[in-house]
Amino acid sequence: MNDLADHARRLRSLAPSCGPVRLIAVDGHAGSGKTTFAGRLAAALDDAPVLHLDDLATHDELFAWTDRLRAQVLGPLSRGETAHYAPYDWTSRCFGPPRALAPAPVMLIEGVGAGRSAVRPFLAGLLWLEGDSDRSWERGRRRDGPALSEFWDGWTVAELEHFADDPSYLFADALIRQLPEGYAWLEAPHATAGTSRIITHSEG
Hints:
By secondary structure, the chain is an alpha/beta fold. It has six helices and ten strands; from the N terminus they run H-E-H-E-H-E-E-E-E-E-E-H-H-E-E-H. The strands form three sheets. It has a six-stranded mixed sheet. Helix 1 crosses helix 2 (34-44). The longest helix is centred in the last third of the chain and has 17 residues, at 149-165.
């Protein structure tokens, strides 16, 4: 985690954005490595909580989860209260028992659309995982196997429509590029318009 230690320290220094929480979004195309990166960054942040958007989306609502996110998570956290959300079970196609999500100094929210317009007012920072969409989707298809081929066919169309209507990339504070060992944090389009809160020019 040495390559993430300095960045974790910088994230801790940001102003709270959702009640007492510094909420950091990890966005990017499906299959780009967001979950792995978020897990490693969370470890560098002394096991910061990670909210996976796969727990809020459903087969019928791939991107229509914003009301659920606000009601179950963002609203309570913004009041300094413990959030309770019901994770979706993608096998049984129903919501499971509620999980508690207590306010923490830094919390990560990861998944496609984590940096969408409805969420950005609650964010202290937005990180975008670099990766060509077709290559990322192919990686996801290989990971999930042929049994989910039909799901991926529908997903890619839905993801393209989502980012066309509500892009995250242009609002990112830093681009994260996966290297053979570790990650590179690069300047993002949003960061070049002013002083980034997350990355310095020397890192870009």
